[in-house]
Design a protein that fits this description.
Length: about 160
């Protein structure tokens, strides 16, 4: 890598990287590279294939952007979506302390589709079929005994409008 500048200003170079560097392996080559046949283990052909299949992924230590090697020496950058995820909610389904529970099939489908992991507090926008929207923060819900249940999502609504 010759070097490139992140959108936040950090400079990645061969000698100094302000983040971490990883190697990506295409899915179609993963098994061949990770679990080669014993006879193929030390061949030069396999070594060349391994080296040719890798591409680099760089994570900026300052802003969190991802950068990967593209075609012809280009760098492709990715920025995380900063808008909160939108989750369908039944605004009438609440827990004992007034938080909205996200346990309906449509809520769970939105969570799965967006591949969300609950690491409280997680900001999100709730919506329903009437067009209502509300901002809130997801937290762990309470089970029947009043203990926190990490598999149950409960959203405390914000006072600010969506």
């Amino acid at each position: 890598m010759g070097g490139f500048k992140c959108g936040c200003g950090n400079i990645f170079s061969g000698s100094r990287n302000p983040g971490q560097q990883f190697r990506l392996v295409p899915d179609e080559l993963f098994d061949q590279i990770a679990w080669p046949a014993p006879a193929d283990l030390d061949t030069q052909e396999r070594q060349r294939a391994v080296e040719a299949s890798f591409s680099s992924l760089y994570v900026c230590g300052n802003c969190g952007r991802l950068h990967r090697d593209g075609e012809s020496g280009t760098i492709i950058s990715y920025v995380a979506d900063v808008s909160p995820p939108r989750i369908w909610a039944d605004f009438t389904l609440r827990d004992g302390i007034g938080r909205i529970l996200l346990c309906q099939d449509r809520s769970l489908a939105d969570i799965r589709r967006q591949k969300l992991l609950l690491n409280p507090p997680l900001s999100m926008t709730l919506y329903d079929d009437s067009g209502a929207e509300a901002l809130g923060e997801a937290e762990f819900g309470l089970d029947a005994s009043g203990s926190y249940d990490e598999s149950l999502w409960a959203v405390r609504l914000d006072d600010r409008p969506a």
